[in-house]
């Protein structure tokens, strides 16, 4: 699985849109954004907008490389599509949680115009730079409220996910648009018809089903009855370990189910804790302890659910999410590169 992800990452490193053609507004060679990623949206600026105490050396080089691409995908999406037609598929899962906080970081930087490189010490907040001239063309001012947060919810949705989505909405000030159709396709059609969604950020990764050949900018399959929506797959080539490294080092809250041994969340009645995380005593280790996550992540899907699994992550709390620990300790199950 690692070889698959790595080879396809390299093969698509310059790919920004389907059919091997550049996304609108991009050159046909090495992509040259019309925005400045070296200053305004540098890696350290993005990371400090989420947690101002971290350093670049806290993260693996592999994750930083993927993070740079993710920032460019988001900025390209913002520059190409009107904000009133942009959505975000937020389902409360770990991957979408990563994308949420990347969007939040970019929105934070935009709300402060551009930033001085001198203000990015590990203990400072992002400060505005009124004389910044590094961006040759202005970008639309993204806010979380300006994005349509699309949440497909069914009778099979975990209650813990509902709680986590509500908590995120309350804490970060965005409005969730819930859709309660039987299928996601029906929900997407409603989003297009009633909310003018033409493009949407996703948390799809290449190891997800039917995603191995996707591009970062992937149109929906209209020939199979899907509405015409451009999917902007922000973290397409992130590995399982990258996701958990990002969440844990930055101390980002995530759904409590992941501390109970769940590694991939689907229908409540057909999703169980990952059997590869069960210890000899019956206790389930947390999701970030899974080795070979790119291959084994979905091992608990479409299985008979197990009642009230014990968790080694600590006693249960009433909160619908857990805050990850940082820095990542050298401990059993730590698979961060």
Q: Brief overview, please?
A:
With 337 residues, the protein is of the alpha/beta class. It has 8 helices and 10 strands. The protein has a 6-stranded mixed β-sheet with strand order 3-2-1-4-6-5. It has a two-stranded antiparallel sheet with strand order 7-10. A two-stranded parallel ribbon has the order 8-9.
What can you see in these coordinates?
With 337 residues, the chain is an alpha/beta fold. Helices cover 28% and strands 10% of the residues. The strands form three sheets. It has a six-stranded mixed sheet with strand order 3-2-1-4-6-5. Strands 7-10 form a two-stranded antiparallel sheet. The longest helix is centred in the first third of the chain and has 20 residues.
Brief descriptors of the model:
337 residues, alpha/beta, two-stranded antiparallel sheet
Q: Layout of SSEs?
A:
Blueprint: H1 2-11, H2 43-50, H3 61-80, E1 86-89, H4 94-111, E2 148-152, H5 159-172, E3 176-179, H6 184-195, E4 199-202, E5 217-219, E6 230-233, H7 240-249, E7 253-255, E8 283-284, H8 293-296, E9 310-311, E10 321-323
Parallel strand pairs: 1-2, 1-4, 2-3, 4-6, 8-9
Antiparallel strand pairs: 5-6, 7-10
